[in-house]
Amino acid sequence: MLEISNLSIRYGSKEGGVRALEGVNLRIEDGSIFGIVGESGSGKSTLAMALMRLLPKSGSVEGGQVLLDGQDILSMPDREFRKLRGSKLSLVFQGAMNTLNPLMRIDIQVAEPLVLHGMSEKDAALQKAHETLELVGLDASTWRKYPHELSGGMKQRTVIASAIITQPKVLIADEPSTALDVITQVQIMNLLRSLQRRLYMTVIFISHDFPLVSEMSDRIAIMYGGKLCETGRNDQIMHRPMHPYTVGLINSVASIGNKRKLSAIPGDPVDMRNPPSGCRFRPRCSGATEKCASYGYAVTNVESEHDVYCTLYGN
Amino acid sequence: MTEEQHFLKIFLHNKKGMAGLIIVLIFVAMGILAPYVTPYSPSYTNPNAFLLPPSSKHPFGTNVLGQDLLTLDFYGARISLIVGISAAAIAVGLGLIVGLFSGYYGGVIDEILMRVVDFFIVIPALVFMIIIAALLGPSTVNVILVIGMLSWAPTARIIRSMVLSIREWPFVESAKANNAGSLYIMFRHIFPNVSSVLYGNAMLAVASAIFTQAALVFLGVGNVTDISWGGIIHEAYATGALDAGDLSYVIPPGFFIFILIFGFILIGYAVEEILNPRLRILKRQ
Amino acid sequence: MNEYRSYLAKRVAFAILSIFIIVTFDFFLFRLMPGNPIEILYRSPALTPAQVATLNREFGLNLPLYQQYFLFIKNSLTANYGISINYRIPVSQVLFPALVNSLVLLVPATVLAILLGIVTGRIAAWRRGTATDGFLTGTSMALYSIPTFWLGEMLILLAIASSSLPVSGMYTLGQTYSNFIFQFFDLMRHMVLPLATLTLVLYGQFTIIMRNSLIDVLDEDYISFARSKGATDSYIMRRHAMPNAELPMISLIAVNLGLTVGGAVLTEVVFNWPGVGLLIYDSINARDYPVLQAAFIVVAIAIVLANVVADVLYSFLDPRIRYS
Ligand SMILES: Nc1ncnc2c1ncn2[C@@H]1O[C@H](COP(=O)(O)OP(=O)(O)OP(=O)(O)O)[C@@H](O)[C@H]1O
Ligand code: SF4
Ligand SMILES: [Mg+2]
Description:
The complex is a heterotrimer of chains A (315), B (285) and C (324).
Chain A: E1 2-11, E2 18-28, E3 33-37, H1 44-51, E4 59-68, E5 71-72, H2 78-84, E6 89-92, H3 106-116, H4 122-135, H5 152-164, E7 170-174, H6 182-199, E8 202-207, H7 210-216, E9 219-224, E10 227-233, H8 234-239, H9 244-255, E11 300-303, E12 306-308
Parallel strand pairs in A: 3-8, 3-9, 6-7, 7-8
Antiparallel strand pairs in A: 1-2, 1-4, 4-5, 9-10, 10-12, 11-12
Helix pairs in contact in A: 3-4, 3-5, 4-5, 5-6
Chain B: H1 3-12, H2 15-37, H3 69-105, H4 107-122, H5 125-136, H6 140-150, H7 153-166, H8 170-177, H9 182-218, H10 229-238, H11 247-275
Helix pairs in contact in B: 2-3, 2-11, 3-4, 3-6, 3-7, 3-9, 3-11, 4-7, 5-6, 6-9, 7-9, 8-9, 9-10, 9-11, 10-11
Chain C: H1 2-32, H2 37-42, H3 49-59, H4 65-77, H5 91-126, H6 131-145, H7 148-162, H8 180-218, H9 221-228, H10 233-255, H11 257-270, H12 276-285, H13 289-317, H14 319-322
Bound molecules: adenosine-5'-triphosphate (ATP), iron/sulfur cluster and magnesium ion (MG).
């Protein structure tokens, strides 16, 4: 179980920087696929990097707590956390196919986590890497190749292999299929789903593609401008959307058919350096009232497991 | 604000760049004001007062001809700056032209020009310059030409790699579509986008030209009749003043070369830092 | 694999072409320069009639220019450079021992400077933005700015003042050695100052190259990727950052060899080290054109060949070239 409470992340200094994440609360159950959706800049990758404690130097945790099976992973010492990173908790980066080291054979890169965590000796790790590469659909002819010899989809599979080789409890996949062609995209999604079942992992699936998230996930969180809008089970979000932004997303998908685009909601994305007061979605929200300008993001539990952050619902 | 004004604004806040600029300006002032601030005329010789140790009359002592070394050290700034800047101008100008043509036209022209660049980058320039300068005979103009002609290749390589990407930009495409001439596009559209790199590069070129000029004169193949820092060191070396441990003869001119080069290097590095912020030495947040 | 071969073939072809151009340039430089040094040379009263006859036969001075040119190429490639005016013996007998002496100084200095540069460049990049970085980068830029010959002279002044180390030559003049160890020890003592000079001036440049290429590499995605697997900082440095940063180092070192040789020439002159640099210096003063003409070719060819070696090494270490 991964419990994120009141997490806030800032980039840069107090005066000049941006607060990329603010007061995020999520409960992610074991063995499920948890989808996080939001448009570009809404803070999805920031959340992923914060969970991995891989924020760049300019990024810092302003507040909040993250408990992995009851263990506070943000406050534990670096050395302790490093034992979890890449073994119990793994990440497939956004743009993962560009993250391979050009000078290293891919099977060695896949085997690295096992060696780093002392889980196997070099030879055994390499053996396991080959099995894992096979598992993600790369046959023996590719194992000893270098990254530049592989296609984008193959590189993506390689990165996924290196993330699952230690059989992590939680796998964070940040836009794992963006920048791939549609067929490869589907293949990668099927792969993730089957791996999740097979290894009984918790997968945090991050994407700006709402239909894709709704197809993949058991539970969904919708983010806007570094804040949560709505969280709930897949059926709750899809059938009883509450937040005006969620409603807009669902309508836009319906209206433009299979052209999956989020920008169909009129208005510009939030300027994170200079966000509006109260609800961040206010300038684009057709149902906005005066209350919204001073909205303090109090949460409303509209039904079991279904939370909404909006003044329309009781606050 | 134009690109260049913006650049200038950042530069004025760069500590290294400003330190370098101040150093260079001090030496420029030294060269210009030499006649007004030095105690003697540079041509004044005194056979009775040769190789004097430092004194209140001659703070750095005198040389073999009895000339005041402090005076000569001040005048020496002139040749270093003149040769450094003129040779760098030739080198950077040639490099710019080759880089623009190579990157803009691409194809066979690019291939040929780049092999020529490779050639000039690889050859041991100083050895060539020593021999060529020795054959051409000692003259400051020859030294400027030789340094300039043998130092343009690095600039050409950098400019070319920038032009390769700039020529794909939409405004270049549209200029082409409007039938603008190639030369016009190169100098009117592409040049402004490589100019800051060019200036940074020019500073490094000046630094290396100052060094080379001093080295050639030190080796006796430059013009030893002009007053220059390299010449003073050459003289000290040739007359045995060095072995005699005559500190005030050898230390000041070399130190001046060192600091002047350091000034130009600082400016060049500052420009590079501004263009590639990752290199910057910033306080951690 | 085929493309790899054709890459190497291209580099070798370029090297051969470069050498050809250098030889050609050298030929015309010494013939078309004001005063035609070569003509002067063969009228030199220092030569015996027998030597003049040999030169005429070997260099064909009475033949048309193009035939002289082909003869020159043939002679250059067979290391037949004529007779030194100054030393009155074949140029190759003067030049090649000097080349060995140069390498005795140049190779250790370059290796030392590169190793030091890698170590400090690595520290500076890792501590980017700290006072340590500022100090290391600052001293490197200062050392890079110091004129080689002046730094050498400063060290000479120090050595004279403390009368601690020899400041001239490779061995003590007139010394005979009872065994090899003493001779070696004497060489080491003579080497300290020139080696220090050359190492110091080269060091700054390598530190800055190393630091900047490492900083670029540390920002690459594969570094975060390695970190996400649970790698420690030192593991990331060793296995991912350094190999990627050292690769551009190899080609930059090769490209800068010309500069390195320039530094060596000045160091040799200052410390009277009997290498090619000092030979060139002496030959200019003695108007020993055959030696100059040969030195020009030999130094240039050595550098071109070193670049070929660097290309091969680079392509061997970079799988993107090796398997393409
Ligand atoms: N290293 C950084 N320094 C400063 N600001 C940053 C940094 N990384 C991200 N940000 C800012 O934080 C906000 C959230 O960025 P983040 O990358 O988390 O968005 P995202 O939801 O992943 O977007 P995308 O869909 O484009 O990947 C943005 O406003 C972005 O500009
Ligand atoms: S809080 Fe107000 S502005 Fe924000 S989504 Fe709800 S109604 Fe719209
Ligand atoms: Mg993202």
